[in-house]
Amino acid sequence: MKKVYPVILSQEEKFIVAYVSDFEFNTQGTVIVDAIEMARDAIRGVGIDILQIFPSFSAPTAVV
User: Are 8 and 61 in contact (CB under 8 A)?
Assistant: First the structure.
């Protein structure tokens, strides 16, 4: 099953920062595509760890 977690992208001085609010972490890339890929990789890693520790981890935040 796939889940979608919202990511907020913001342009900083040298990088594009990707903030993943459901996991409360930032990652970055030099261009938008890199920032999105870094966020995706981090979500996979963090998500796997959290699900192993907390199998009933809540669903992604709804985006309105």
Answer: no
Task: Please name the residues in contact with 16: beta carbons below 8 A apart, sequence gap of 6 or more.
Answer: 9, 10, 28, 29, 30, 31, 32, 34, 35
Q: pLDDT tens digits for 3-42?
A: 778 899 999 999 999 998 888 889 999 999 999 999 999 8
Map out the domains of the chain as residue ranges: 13-53
Neighbour-count burial for 23-38, b at 16+ CB within 10 Å, e otherwise: beebbbbeeeeebbeb
